[in-house]
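anyone seen this seq b4? input:
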Amino acid sequence: MKYCPLCDSQQLDDFHQDKFRQYVRCQQCDLISVADKYLLTSEQEKAIYDQHQNDANDSGYRRFLGRAWQPLQRYIDSSMRGLDFGCGPGPTISVMAKEQGMSMSDYDLYYFNDPQLLQQRYDFITMTEVIEHVADAKQLVAQLDSLMADSSVLVVMTKRAQHEAAFAKWHYKNDLTHIRFYSDKTFIWLANHLGWRLEFADKDVVLLFKST
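predicted toks r here
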């Protein structure tokens, strides 16, 4: 890997190696990445996702997603339109939103791939356990920016990377579909780069506000 997939910096340091993959960290934005040679094919990736048993009727899954949904509710109301970006095979946040009288669409590359949804703009977007799977981080951020209306909010749920000693013991990196790891510093860089306001809502939840 010659360039950081988020900020294009060439200042990449060897960060960690385990029995599966090698990891590098960007000096500029602090993103931790695996090299392209470790990326799964779309077919391999989807085969893993097909094993997920996410269900809107699962109370445990609802509680898990609630860590992103609850802090978001302080900033949205029923007049706003939302998008669950990367909803997976069992959309749930949109169901929770509908129960509260809010309008929300579901988009997923593999399961709900409606390109027309990506031609619109939204007042709020949820992206839970998605960002760590996307190889082209820079393109993803640009896409999210294009989907966000003025004065909108994006909630991202992903476990945040820490120092190398903690990373070495981190179960999160062992999922081979997890290829980009964001830290507090990465989200701070991202917010500064885009001119967004950042709020750390939980240990694995951040809110990003797009200004007018």
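The mean pLDDT is 95. The chain has one domain: 12-209. kinda curious what u guys think
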